[in-house]
Here is the input.
Amino acid sequence: MEFNLDFGTADLTPRRAEGPLLASVDGQAARLSAEEVVFHDPHTGENHVMTLDVLAAMDASRRFQPLQQHVATVVQRLPALAGKEHAVEKVFEFLRGRGLVVEAGQMLDQLQASTPESLDDPAGLVIRTCDRPAELARLAASLAELEKSTGRGLRYIVVDDSREAGTDNRVALKALTDLGLSVDHLDRTWRQRLADSLPEPALAREILGVNESQALTCGGAWNAALLITAGERFLMLDDDFVIDPRLPAGGGGQRLSVLEGSHVPMHFSGPNLDELAAALPVPEPGSEGAALDPLAEHLSVCGQPPAVLFGQEFGLEVSADTLRGATFSQVEGLLRGQSIKTTAAGAWGDWRMDTNLWFYLAPPAHTQGMRASEASYRALSHQPVMAHGYPHPQLTRMSNFTPLAFDNRELMPCTAATGRGEDFTFAAWLRYLYPGSLCLHFPTLLRHQRPAGGRESPIPETFVPWLSRFAGEYALSHIDQCSAETPEDRLATLVATLRDLAAASADRRQLLLGQFLAMIRSQIVEQAQTSLTSLSPAPEFWVRDAREWITENGRSLTQAGAPRLRDWPQDATADDCAEQLAAGLTRYADHLAHWPTLWHQCRGQRESLVGL
Here is the structure.
């Protein structure tokens, strides 16, 4: 339907400041004349003719807010409309009638009738371990206690990346085997046999991380897990977790959050693990938001469309007011997304990242406990003890950490076999293959406990990302350029995109590396400065280290030097970096190109693969 709108001088009865939350839809506009445009609504396929002022009003009302707030924003942006607030309201009502301005509550009402999908039992729980029998034994004991209380009878698949001679992780699994549970221990020699049974064994060995020259092959074990479970859903934990659930302070409950924030909330309670445990509520069976089996809640939603979360079976709640400040596209993308491909849990205990830079990026409220005293701060800098997770169930477009549950019934991408950051790379490549896929983060926190011993404080240091981070970010930046529909075709496009950059000139590769480092470092410097300036008063020890860290990273933006990533030698020249980038991207492209062949060959073959 075509229509032409202009702001007049109609008089309407003033409305109260609060009311339904409204937002304009996204679309494309093309100019018709000096005063008019045609606006294409991709959701209905209709074209609408409107004035430039009306288009500006729609642009100013893209976030869900009450009508009166939208009116005030439009008048502020278009001073010529001062005194015509009632007329602006009338235009909004007209746009609402045409479906160009929508109400949050109506969007939510459309989701209530969804039916949950019938899902098969999972393939089991995959445990990644590497030369840490004590940690594996601790996790196994906690899982055995969970099995005793639930009788779930999960299958356990241990993908063992241990290299130390004489390490026998089978003994560490005794708590599970004593219960008569199915426990498969798959060591590196098994992964070699698996690779040798697949097409192009040499390439398969790289993907599975079993070449002798490869180091830090956490992603290789991840890829093995994806092949074993091809065609099924599964759970995955690392050996340094313990099933000892807690809830974030002030968190839990059934309220679903769909507004994605840039920071996952942190909670510090001194450097002592017991102090932190005492500060976090223990979920009790039958209490609101508690789960007797913290793994069951992940399996119940993994593979489901997000709309079913609001049905009686899942019971999560989302009110229109929780959408305040979100854009129409954010809400539509999250609530009408393709499916929940992964889930994730928070963690309490030891820090689960490889850098402490987040201390200075997080909002001051998140790090208040860390600034209680200089002694506490110094201790936490070397051995961070904290709770880290969302206070309520949270839908996001990507997992922020290693997922707990995976919907591997359809082709999932492999991840970077070597180095660190394989969780981000997997999440980015998964989003590329399934732009509408989602991750549901649960508020239940699992204990994360690393081996004893601190680490060198990284303060100050220049942040240097891994190649896997670059590959993930590069994929995300090209999602909109991919029009293919099937995951196989989209994966082929991603492969071509990585090969294209690998084949660029050395100067082009150096330029993009420099731009990437400048972008990521400028973002973290800005966040750190914003956090510091919003903290008043701030302890001197915190201000001193924060400023030193900001200065160190800010200096890297102006100093000339090779655009080095963390995988590469410290003395790498700019030409070396260009060569390393081409080689790394080519390796990723080779792995991704071969991956569908491996995944489809392994699909439905779990028993025979485990028995190799």
